[in-house]
Amino acid sequence: MTAKPAGLLGRLKPDWYIILIVGMVLLASVLPARGAAVPVFDVATSIAIGTVFFLHGAKLSREAVIKGVTHWRLHLLVLACTFALFPLLTLGLSALPAWITPVSLAPGLMFLGCLPSTIQSSIGFTAIARGNVAATVASATASNLLGIAITPLLAAMLMHAQGSGLSFHSVQSILLQLLAPFVAGQLLRPVIGGWISQRAKFLSYVDRGSILLVVYSAFSEAVVGGIWNQVGALDLLRLGALCLVLLGAVLLATLMAARALGFNTEDEITIVFCGSKKSLASGVPMAGVLFPGASLGLVLLPIMIFHQLQLMACAVIAQHYAKRADNAPETV
């Protein structure tokens, strides 16, 4: 009986996609877009970002938002972890001495803390772990829906306080470039929802391909601006360690909070997986709007590292929960 979760777990690991993302960084490091190619990539990136959020709006089922919404204690706890605990922790990490937290990477850490949770992997890992899938769908969906507005506002507030140069004017840009396509997708869902569903696999490639384009464009500009002169191997190691500490702290906090508040095991699984994740799919396009210029590459590094760490950690945790469920005595 344990073979099925293990097989599904293997299918959920997006190793190829992570490799492609890293490949875009390497390609941009060797062959960055320069000269006349830059405006072309800028336009293509803007179109790609709009496309991503249009598809998100068109795919998002209103029933998924409504389903499980009555479980308000669970949803409030997940949202508190996502948009309160995470930002406070990353704000604290970014304020550490420069020999611990590289100054150039501190804005990226803060932005990471402001991002919404993931949807696909949260649902997938919850299903493997035998958790409350319906509540996960509702909670992760609400996180992403609210994140379109909350993330830029939080990022602007925290980074303005830290003098990182992110202005509230950027929030207007993200509302126009991200929220407008998202709303358009939602409005057109009754017309194109069936077409979208029938081509879900193909459109997922469009979605992910758009993110790869944003990553390549961002790192091209960053490489031209001298990112690898600002960030060395030691900085990347320190960043990885900081992301591990952050992930471990949030996983422990969500677990302890779920148990302290008396949630059952199925709800605990939902809280742990939804409350501890940050969305690369939402984070890359948002960063592309909020951080134009060479600084975008620096902002994306923490997101990329944390994303892979959270997938590996949650894969192990999901398997542990699944084995515990398989070994639990049957009740009549």
From TrEMBL:
Entry's transmembrane regions: 12-31, 37-55, 76-100, 106-129, 141-162, 174-197, 209-227, 239-262, 283-306
Gene3D superfamilies, per database record: 1.20.1530.20
Keyword flag Transmembrane helix: yes
UniProt xrefs under InterPro entries: Na+/solute_symporter_sf (IPR038770), Put_Na-Bile_cotransptr (IPR016833)
Pfam families, A to Z: SBF_like
This protein's UniProt keywords: Membrane, Transmembrane, Transmembrane helix
Keyword Transmembrane helix recorded: yes
Protein name in UniProt: Bile acid:sodium symporter family protein
Origin species: Phenylobacterium conjunctum
